[in-house]
Amino acid sequence: MNKITLGLIQSSSNHSAETNLDNTIKKINQAARLGARIVCTQELFRTPYFCKTESSHNFALAEPIPGPTTEIMGRLAKQLKVVIISSIFEKRTKGLYHNTACIHGTNGKLILKYRKMHIPDDPLYYEKFYFTPGDLGFKTVQTEFGKLGVLICWDQWYPEAARLLALQGAEIIFYPTAIGWLKKEGKKQGLEQHQAWRTVQQSHAIANGVFVAAVNRVGFESIGKSGIQFFGRSFVCNPLGQIIKEASGNREEVLLVRCNLGEIEKTRHTWPFLRDRRIDAYHDLTRRYLD
User: Fold this and answer.
1) 211-216 and 235-237 beta bridge pairing
2) SS (H, E, C) 149-208
3) Domain ranges of the chain
4) N or C terminus: fewer CB in 10 A for the chain?
5) Beta strand pairing call for 140-143 and 180-182
6) Catalytic residue among 27, 52, 116, 246
7) Looking at the domain covering 3-286, what would its CATH class be?
8) How far apart are the C-alpha atoms of 138 and 168, rounded to whole Å?
9) Is 43 one of the annotated active-site residues of the chain?
10) What is the rounded (10 degree) CA torsion for 165, 285, 215, 47?
11) pLDDT 10s digits, 73-107
12) Catalytic site residue 237?
């Protein structure tokens, strides 16, 4: 199956986990009804972006895997005969938590679990307080709609992560995301950050000859007099790095994007980057810095 429709669920979030879940379920149903075969949520879709503060109370938002959300997503995937990628605050055990993405196949089974590897620590993005870096590595999974890989938000700035998925045969790399600009930074700087965010992911698509799907949240989430303006703009680009379709920056959307996976081989015939890699010369990449 070369041609496949992706469904990207771009939403805003409030403080009710059940409301956020119901909203996402409705949008997944809508995406499937309109022909999507693979549907992906934004990062941490059941909650506001709680990493704006360091508070031990927020650990109560986490859940085990398998758990309530994976059970719901599994049933939904089986009912709709779609592949669902969902982003979950995972409680692995007492005092150990991960930012995790789960892929459920059309039979409802959990077919891949990925724990976010790169954990940021920036103003209003205090993720190191909450998340232990992933220990499952970078993995792909074959589905009836194509071979998929998933990375999460801060992972999208690292070419090594995308490359390792491509080397395992990933045809589409999904990035559940929560990114925006800080209120104090202003719109101009925010727009510059958005352009950088989009460009680096287009670069991953080009360098690896794959489709890239980035699913961002939207809306302003305040914290005191400050806050984050999540800029939405979820998009899918092809192996040439061209944006096929992009969501708005100011509203919730179900973005449906038709992809022709046959473009991957065609593009790699022209740009055989995997063929020309000098794998004998890259050993220094395992070092932190070349002093």
Assistant:
1) antiparallel
2) EECCHHHHHCHHHHHHHHHCCCCEEEEEECCEEEHHHHHHHHHHHHHHHHHHHHHHHHHH
3) 3-286
4) C
5) unpaired
6) 116
7) alpha beta
8) 9
9) yes
10) 110
11) 999 999 999 999 999 999 999 999 999 999 999 99
12) no
